[in-house]
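Posted in: Structural Biology > Protein-Ligand Complexes

Title: Requesting predicted complex, adenosine-5'-triphosphate in pocket

I'd be grateful if someone could produce the 3D structure tokens for the following input. Sequence and ligand are given below.
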Amino acid sequence: MKEIKKVFAFAKEYHYKLYTAVLLAVLSVFIGIIPFYLVYRIIMRYMGDLPLNFNYLLLISGLIFLSLLAKSFFFLKAMANSHEVAFDTLMGMRKKLADKLLRLPMGEIKKRGSGKLKNIFVDMIEEMELILAHMIPEGVSYIIVPLSIVVYLFFLDWRMAFLSLGNIPVSMFIFHLMMNSNKEKLESWFKAGAEMNANIVEYIGGMEVIKIFNQTTTSFKKYTESVRDYEKFTLDWYRESWTYMAGFFTILPCTMLFVIPFGALFYLQGSLSLSVYILSMLLSMSLGEPLSKLARFIESITMLTKKSQAINQILDSQELVKSEVEQIPRNSNISFKQVSFAYDEEEVLSDISFTAKENTVTALVGESGSGKSTIAKLLVRFWDVNTGKIKIGNIDIKNIPFAKLMDSISYVSQDIFLFDTSIMENIRMGRPEAVDEEVIKVARIAQCHDFIMELDKGYDTLAGDAGNKISGGQKQRISIARALLKDAPIIILDEATAFTDPENEDKIQEALNDLIKGKTLIVIAHRLSTITAANNIIVMGNGQIAAQGTHQELLDKSEIYQKMWQAHTDAMDWNINVKGGSLNA
Ligand SMILES: Nc1ncnc2c1ncn2[C@@H]1O[C@H](COP(=O)(O)OP(=O)(O)OP(=O)(O)O)[C@@H](O)[C@H]1O
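-- Reply #1 --
Done. Output follows.
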């Protein structure tokens, strides 16, 4: 219930509309009782030997028709209101979740995986619509109306009131048995659903790798197994519940189960008038529909509790530390002071200290897995350090407003992601307010313009459609164009030449020359020949700084660097000429 309450909290802004919806729904259900009362009037007229002329019956029929019409009208009005509230609230929830992701460490996001997140963002939230749009207005009316009928029945004859409720404890007992008997199965069913979603997304996302490495059998097996598991657990749950459910849904609306026999007994004994007996039967009959609809909601609540748990788990996750005192750095000097960090248990960076002065180039080199990318990711706060401090302009990055920090850094990462929107918009992400001309200007500098113009719709080509026609190197130039447009004072280039081929390489170098002018640059490179002119080269080994200095200093004093240099002398690709703030081939 606590979980569901949290969902209601999202609808706070729309409480007024929600109350109106409840009121209209209650009205609609009450109006729905009128036909029962009118039928009672006809029966009483028959029995009272009053004349039953055609006009009277016509009037009653007309009133029944009008009340059914009014019932539908108020119900539809209630639904219109509640759906408006529901979809506004769902939008709010999705926005809140998306905002939350921005404030979460990347680890938290990756731990969940895109499949599970998609499941939460789309499917689970969609199912919240049921609570807000239907459960509240309808559910409340299905409680209030039967209660009012029962109260009225108490006034008529308290025995009939109790009798009309007699079936409820019986059905609730069956429901209780059902919930207790298959708790674990329900849990497995939910898990299997989440697993299946994750596998579907992974299967589609990894299609390229699956095809290339001919992993179709294994991956397809994983996918089909999860679909089969989902089917199995769903059926397991239903099989276990079927008998109980049938019992529950049959007995709950049988409100006349005790009213008819015992009412007849009281009537024959003379302690109950015929009119009260008949009215009690008709009123208890009108209880059936709201009660069985309410029962459907009870079933849904169990499901929704699980789903809102998953949503709330994300919303309650620990965010990146937000400082009370926010400060703006005055320069772009970067310093790492005794920084240590572990993604999980194992420390991947220990005691890292270095400074990267404004307008200089710092290169990170070292064997694969030595922690170079982690240093970059800590600087952009994908994760927070465990111990030590990272400062920009002598201010701890935790104290720099997140948006400001992001504005200060352009991160050209290993994973270049293009959104499935136009190429123009993909580049514009660097600075959303940039006009088309500015986007085209940076695209020219980043050597993208020509190949973009060759695409079917030029800058308007969707990245998804263009996907197969854009090479890795071209993608990289698009990401450089983005970074150029952003024009941030600090640039991190992670494996910036990972996709290079001879044709692309010169172009990327030219693009980079423009990007790094007058900036503080941190470059992660495998090919040492590209960073020989860096102001400071940090040699990483096993998560620690093995040595640091200029190329020459390291050649003189660092054995590990000497070995690396020897291994790389063949791979002459691009050089950094720091004096000119440019990269030269
Ligand atoms: N998201 C993650 N979760 C857990 N461990 C991670 C994660 N990312 C990296 N690691 C681990 O942290 C260590 C450092 O990785 P990192 O990517 O920083 O190395 P790197 O020097 O940049 O490697 P490469 O040159 O291959 O990119 C490695 O042992 C890696 O397995």
